[in-house]
Amino acid sequence: MKSFSELHSNKKISFKTVIDTVGKVVFIFIKYFFKKKDHILFSAYDRNVYCDNSRYLFEYLSNNTELKVYWLTDNLEIQNYLTSNNYKFITTKNIFLLIWVMLKTKVTVNSGIQYFNLFGILDNNSTVKISTLHGSGPKATISRTENINTAINQIKNINKFDYINFSSKFSSINIGKRVYLIPNSKIINFGYPRCDQYFDLRRVNIKHKEKLSVNKIVNNFDINSKIILYTPTWRPYEYQFPLDKLTNIDYLKFDEWLKNNNYYFFYTSHSGSFTKRIKNNFNRIIYIDIKQFPMFDINEFMNEVDILLNDYATTSTDFALLNRAQIFFMPDYDYYYQEKGFIEDYRSSIPGEEIYTYDDLIKLLNYINDDPLRYVKKFELSTKNILNKYYESELKNSNMRFKEFIFKLLNI
Q1: Distance, CA of 292 to CA of 183 (rounded, Å)
Q2: Roughly what angle, to the nearest 10 degrees, separates helices 251-260 and 358-370?
Q3: Rounded distance, CA 308 to CA 304, Å?
Q4: 183 to 122, 156, 162, 232: CA distances (angstroms)
Q5: Which long-range contacts (CB under 8 A, 24 or more apart) does 375-384 make?
Q6: Is the separation of the CB atoms in 285 and 267 below 8 Å?
Q7: pLDDT, position 86
Q8: Phi-psi sector, 35: left (phi>0), alpha (psi -120 to 50), beta
Q9: Among 191, 196, 198, 192, residue whose Cα is nearest residue 305
Q10: What is the dihedral of CA 76, 81, 86, 91, to 10 degrees?
Q11: Helices (DSSP H) in 198-356: which residue ranges?
């Protein structure tokens, strides 16, 4: 027998489905009668975060055009930030304004493979759907599961966009055409708006020195401290926090090493893979909780990072633009390769050393600390190879490219 909570949950799902169906019927014809001219709607993968390519392009167009540019969010902290900067936004809490803006939207932009589409309002020939995409690198393949429909739906969803953006010709062919089966007519190569900042070396150096993003997370942060960022990627299968699998890892001992060597270790984590071994009372090991810091933007943060600890995440490509030290820990490499795969052999392409034990990590950190430029130089060829394939150096003005493209769509 089903519990009350299960029955209640099913009723809620059923009610939501009914409302969605009725809404689609109501707007099936209405959406075609609204004139769409200069309204642009931006969104991220979640209405409670403010980050990624769509954020940067949203702010660029808000500051440099007269277009009616809106950000979709339900988070009060983000709304306060947008209000203080005179940026327009809409929320699902104000359903009438939301519907009105959507009916007027000429272009909608999202950084993932699925755009927000209440009642199917944006499914019309007059609204142009653009995906800036989320990341580029050897791991950018389709998630494989026991159910083939998961992969099929990913391909269907991304092909609902009118234009899908890539940061290199190599990625547009090997990821766009061969993985997502995107036709030539939908592929654009404009680079990532979030990465424009990395081509301004003066600003990068200032941000690295001032460490303003870190100061928002850690009180009384010593700006002379160095920063390690750990960004384990999401897996299409159940998994524990990857760093817990590092042989002989002792977080208390590691915390002491960080303190003695004036380092901080920041890490992110996907839902379902939290570690219980890292205690809240550690001084130098800091979890970046997106719920606590909805304004957190990893690309802004990376300006202040000295060393990136990674596995398969495409943050490696972005960080390669900064030409700083990278370390790789991949405890489930064979299984990940089996379940999801790579565009090319990953181990032979990584721009950094791979570690297997806690002793490897400390030894490598000491080596980098003694001479970071020597370490970066050691992987110079691998770094250039990653960027040649996944982020072309001439795409250093992505925001401007998008602006010109959108102006053409709007006939401006």
Answers
A1: 40
A2: 10
A3: 11
A4: 21, 12, 10, 31
A5: 375/325, 376/323, 376/324, 376/325, 379/326, 379/351, 379/352, 379/353, 382/349, 382/350, 382/351, 382/352, 383/320, 383/323, 383/351
A6: yes
A7: 98
A8: beta
A9: 198
A10: -30
A11: 201-210, 212-215, 251-260, 298-302, 315-320, 333-339
Per-residue tokens: 371:
């001479």
The answer to whether the beta carbons of residues 126 and 144 sit under 8 Å apart is no
| Dist. CA 10–CA 5, nearest whole Å | 9
Q: How many CB atoms lie within 10 A of CB 364?
A: 19
Torsion, CA 272, CA 311, CA 253, CA 270, rounded to 10 = -20
Q: Tell me the C-alpha distance between 75 and 107, whole Å.
A: 23
Joined together, the tokens standing for residue 209 give 């020195």
Residue type, 74: D
Structure tokens at 191: 């680079």
- In the numeric block, which tokens belong to residue 112? 């993932």
Q: How far is residue 267's CA from residue 249's CA, in Å, rounded to a whole number?
A: 15
Q: pTM to 2 decimals? A: 0.92
Helix-strand-coil split of the chain, %, nearest 5: 45, 15, 45
Cβ neighbours around 93 below 10 Å, total? 11
Look at residues 379, 292, 281, 316 and name the one whose alpha carbon lies nearest to residue 139.
Answer: 316
Neighbours of 355 (CB within 10 A): 20
d(CA 152, CA 159): 11
- The helix-helix angle for 398-409 and 52-64 (nearest 10°) equals 70
Q: How far is CA 30 from CA 25, 27, 103, 120, 225, in A?
A: 9, 5, 9, 11, 58
Q: Are 53 and 194 in contact (CB under 8 A)?
A: yes
Cα 409 to Cα 412: distance, rounded to the nearest angstrom: 8
Concatenated DSSP letters for 65-105?
--SEEEEE---HHHHHHHHHTT-EEE-TTSHHHHHHHHHHE
Residue 17's pLDDT is: 80
Per DSSP (E only), the strands in 179-321 are 187-189, 226-230, 263-267, 285-287, 307-310
Q: Which pLDDT belongs to residue 15?
A: 67
Two tokens at 10? 């099913």
**Tokens representing 355?**
């570690």
Report helix angle 4-30 to 95-104, nearest 10.
40
Owner of token pair 């988070």: 75
10-residue stretch averages of pLDDT, the chain, 412 residues long? 41 67 81 87 95 97 97 98 98 96 97 93 95 93 77 93 98 96 98 98 97 94 96 90 96 97 94 72 92 95 98 96 98 93 94 98 98 98 97 96 97 85
Per-residue tokens: 99:
């519907």
